[in-house]
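Dear support,

Our group has been running a series of protein-ligand predictions, and this particular one with guanosine-5'-monophosphate is the one our PI (initials K.S.) wants archived with full inputs and outputs. We had some confusion internally about which version of the output was final, so please treat the block below as the authoritative record. The input we submitted was:
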Amino acid sequence: LHIEQGLLRAIAGDQLLLQYQPVVRIDDGQLVGFEALIRWDEPSHGRIGPDRFIPVAEECGLIDYIGSWVLHTACAQALRWMRQGFADLRLAVNVSARQMTTGDFHDTVRDALAVTGFPANQLELEITESTLQAVEHSRELLGRLKALGVLISIDDFGTGFSSLSLLKHLPIDRIKIDRSFVQDLPGDPNDVAVTGAIIALATSLGLGLIAEGVETPAQQQFLRARGCTEAQGYLFSRPLDVDDVDQLIATPR
Ligand code: G
Ligand code: G
Ligand code: G
Ligand code: MN
Ligand code: NA
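Confirmed final output from the archive:
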């Protein structure tokens, strides 16, 4: 499969879709919102994951179109769930490096909010540490995004370099603890130390926390005991199709 040509057909042929992974309160599994995750259903090759095509989309410049499509689609969908009764949901959308450097990402976000009517303070932009480090004008851009009212979270926290200086210099609201630190909890003493330190740091800086990749009750217990407040992972739910989310929020708590 030639990914770049395939992506053009994907865009023209409605082959891109979003799944939504529940984010829950770690205490009791109460749903607090969703992370939108893009997928590509290619007619002859089946489902292709973002790890394979997002880097290509970044290289060939299609990321601006795709990123804008993701924001508009996710905001419009989440607004439907708000109207179905989940009024205070939070929607997280992933942002990659090229989106922050080419075009005007600020205007893309502003337009998606304006066109859909989705409330800015319920939108969380997930940006990785490496993106924040690579983008020259990160600080200025994040400042302009914050002025729209959106939340900024650092995705894959702990996997990049100089994470601590990012926290000091950038207007960050939340940290997502990378699942590589979660997977061997609570047995691995290094991961116990690292996650404990991240949680203590975020808490003392007043930042929100989400643990990613939580797959076992033991991981949940450990993270909760250390003070982590939210989680995401297969223990609670895999990424879901729209219909499954419709059913989830229609089920009385
Ligand atoms: O309790 P029950 O197993 O029915 O709920 C399944 C999941 O769906 C839980 O995470 C629950 O918190 C969530 N849920 C169901 N309906 C709603 C809703 O209207 N709002 C919120 N916030 N969560 C809901
Ligand atoms: O859902 P999955 O584990 O396949 O995601 C793999 C990677 O793709 C993750 O790093 C995730 O952040 C990224 N990703 C998923 N959806 C999007 C998207 O809409 N835009 C961007 N830029 N990255 C995404
Ligand atoms: O880089 P980012 O955090 O955006 O990546 C999110 C990816 O993690 C999604 O592709 C999702 O499919 C995957 N994911 C979500 N929960 C789990 C989990 O519990 N275990 C593993 N291995 N992957 C997960
Ligand atoms: Mn993410
Ligand atoms: Na991550």
